[in-house]
Specification:
There is one protein chain. The protein is mostly helical. The protein has a domain of about 40 residues. The longest helix is centred in the middle third of the chain and has 13 residues. The protein is elongated, with a radius of gyration of 15 Å.
C-alpha cells in the first residue's frame, strides 16, 4: 500500500499548474486539461498508477 500511495503522491508534486496566478495561466491550464485525454503518455501513466494496487484475497 505504501508504494501505491508514494507513486500517486509523486504525481501531485508538479500539480502547481492547477492553481494559476494569472488570467493567462488560467487559460493555459484549461487548455491543458482539455487536451489531457488525448495525450496517451499522460493517460497511460495515470492508468498505470491508478491500477497499481493489488488487493490480496482473504
Amino acid at each position: 500500500m505504501r508504494e501505491y500511495v508514494r507513486r500517486n503522491q509523486d504525481m501531485a508534486v508538479g500539480a502547481s499548474f492547477l492553481f494559476p496566478r494569472t488570467r493567462h495561466g488560467l487559460w493555459l491550464r484549461n487548455q491543458g486539461l482539455r487536451a489531457a485525454p488525448f495525450l496517451s503518455r499522460l493517460s497511460s501513466r495515470i492508468d498505470r498508477n491508478a491500477t497499481a494496487l493489488t488487493i490480496e484475497d482473504y
